[in-house]
């Protein structure tokens, strides 16, 4: 039987790697993101489908849902950090943007796609969180607050749908060396982005997180993985937590 997965934020980084990993495991993958050229190229590469979608726009998410029949796996990957400001100096609008994409975006997409996940008798939702959803660090108040929120949303979904054959997993990476995440956070400053990885000889890469998602999606439906926290070996649990992604 054909299995279908949908990955948001599939235009780069963890999202693109996850789409490739799931396609390699036999899924037909819907690649959803804002940048049409990138997801169209990715969909052609993996034999999937590209759908332009902005998770912060309700109409865009609704259009995404209307184009689906049934769905086996939803990967809520779209997210990001947009500043490194202290609480005292932070722009509330920037914090609102981070909450919108990291939490409300997951809310919109999950609400819209639950009927498709139920269509074949149950499905899996994987939310890409962060170890920032487990710690606090200077300059990260807005992002860590959003990722803490995502963690609680995932936990709540699991409780609210425990009577249904639906599974909800959070994959929480630590330091992952993706080019765009740091550049967006630091306003395009390459030096600040590169300094993020100082002291860790071998950070994770997007393919490492994609493999975790692929593994979770490969398990039988009675197996629920609540959460997976994954860090590079060199990043001890308390080692410069402000660097965690």
TrEMBL record:
GO terms for molecular function: oxidoreductase activity, acting on the CH-OH group of donors, NAD or NADP as acceptor. Gene3D superfamilies: NAD(P)-binding Rossmann-like Domain. InterPro entries: NAD(P)-bd_dom_sf, Sc_DH/Rdtase_CS, SDR_fam. Keywords: Oxidoreductase. Belongs to the short-chain dehydrogenases/reductases (SDR) family. Pfam families: adh_short. This is NADP-dependent 3-hydroxy acid dehydrogenase YdfG. It comes from Nocardioides aurantiacus. PANTHER family: ALCOHOL DEHYDROGENASE. The lineage of its organism: Bacteria, Bacillati, Actinomycetota, Actinomycetes, Propionibacteriales.
